[in-house]
Amino acid sequence: MNIGNAIVSTFTNQGIVSAITSTIFIILLGFYLRKKGTFGPDFGKVLTKVVLAVAIAALSFNSFMQPIDDESMHQGLGILLWGFIIYIILIFVAPLLYSRKNMDKREVMGILTTFGSTTFFGIPIVGAIYGAKGVLYSSIFNIGYRIFLYSYAYIKMSGLKMEKENIKKMFLNPIVIATLVGFVLWLIQGVMPQVTVPLMKNGVAAGGMTTVAFYRIDQTAIWLWKPLNYLASLASPLAWLAIGCTLGSISLKDAISNKLAWYYSFNKVILVPLLNLVLLLILDVTHIMPMNYVAIATVVIMMATPTATVAAAYAISYDREALLTSNASLLSTVSAVVMMPIWIAILGILSSAGIFH
What we know:
Protein name: Malate permease
Order of helices and strands: HHHHHHHHEEHHHHHHHH
Membrane topology: Multi-pass membrane protein
Radius of gyration: 20 Å
Organism: Limosilactobacillus reuteri
Strand order of the largest sheet: 1-2
InterPro entries: Mem_transp_PIN-like
GO biological process, one term: transmembrane transport
Number of helices: 16
Number of domains: 1
Helix content: over 70%
CATH topology: Na+/H+ antiporter like fold
């Protein structure tokens, strides 16, 4: 398929188009309701807490309630490995993008460039476009992200050694628990006690019988899977409303005049995902680490996210370029909202052109 046909195919794909429009429209709705005063100044923070503590935890766990086969295991382990490799690469490479700045700016901007809002911004978008498989891959990818975010980023920003409190944050976070438990259950389902039950698809009887591990609640305990699924379905709309609400609460005027914040935003939402795309395509073509379309697209979208909230909080808490961090966070969020549909379209075009398998 030539590029022209691939472009037409992508922009006539109702799944891709509706995912893009849903993201934009709901973010704009949050922005409008905040500007109008319907949402109060703290409403975005409340929504964020609900999304992170409940919705994405449920989404992450439920994403592992699916069969495992050779391809999904291979892709999942590849994503897990890449999640560690890319952060090690970025830890060394990202500060070089700011080599003309003083050491403090170089260090802070390097960390902000390395760590994006993959959980809050990335997973809801991946789930909306690529479904359960995308959420599965994004949850696995985030294992390496969270380890480095709560260890390396904290130590560099604070100037302190790893503290007990931060280790607790790393492992007792609801999303981390849901991801690790779900990942282990997904991996070992083939060797666990099996039960034969009526086949269910999206909570509805699909006819026939299936044999699954006893804890596959999507098949064996619909009464438990359903409420988790309802909570999981809140992740995308609530996250997008919160993003719009946050943008509606902050003045763009000061941030727009900051050239370094613009340069950072370019690096964060264009350069970093482009680096991932190029490297993953090379690894795929050379068969060093073959990955399919959904796996590669998931990583690219996760890396095209704006500043990680936790990384920004570190910078502000320890007074490490706090004003610059706030401006960079705001501009990168606006840039990510603009660029995300473009990245989704580019990935769709590459897939339609047969570049992905």
